[in-house]
Design a protein that fits this description.
154 residues, alpha+beta, 7 strands, rod-shaped
Length: 154
């Protein structure tokens, strides 16, 4: 009998196929890790941006509400490229490129309806951060983070 030495062609092809499948799975894992990392970066940036904008408003001067809202837009720096800051107006409708303080009644936890004074000395401020940097937004702005806090006249 003759003894066979080496590998058969079929065995080599099966080994190459298994190696190809493992390489493809490894590449998919690397790509998914990159996507998740970028999304976490966008969310973290949005959260820090909202927090810094809110701190700028809270540490700045108190503006009396005119027509049911105080406009704090000029009190905060412009957001970086790829991000947009919006707010909610007194009707809870999103308003682009503005930040409003809405006079607030703490006893009813609702918009101040009193006529005297026109502004009770506390305002609810909602900051909405949008980004076009998120991979799933395809270049369109997508809401990433929303922060609500209160500005108090001290």
């Amino acid at each position: 009998m003759r003894s066979e030495k080496g590998y058969a062609f079929i065995e080599i092809m099966i080994g190459i196929a298994i190696l190809g499948i493992l390489a493809a799975a490894f590449m998919m894992a690397i790509m998914n890790g990159t996507i998740v990392s970028q999304q976490a970066n966008v969310r973290t940036t949005a959260q820090k941006l909202a927090a810094s904008q809110m701190e700028s408003i809270k540490s700045g001067r108190y503006l009396l509400a005119q027509d049911g809202q105080a406009d704090y837009t000029s009190e905060v720096p412009a957001p970086p490229d790829g991000y947009r800051i919006d707010t909610l107006d007194k009707s809870s409708v999103a308003v682009a490129a503005h930040i409003y303080g809405i006079p607030w009644d703490v006893s009813t936890n609702d918009i101040w309806e009193g006529t005297k004074p026109l502004d009770p000395g506390i305002q609810k401020v909602t900051i909405v951060v949008w980004s076009s940097a998120d991979l799933h937004s395809h270049g369109a702005y997508k809401e990433i983070f929303r922060l609500t806090d209160f500005k108090v006249n001290r």
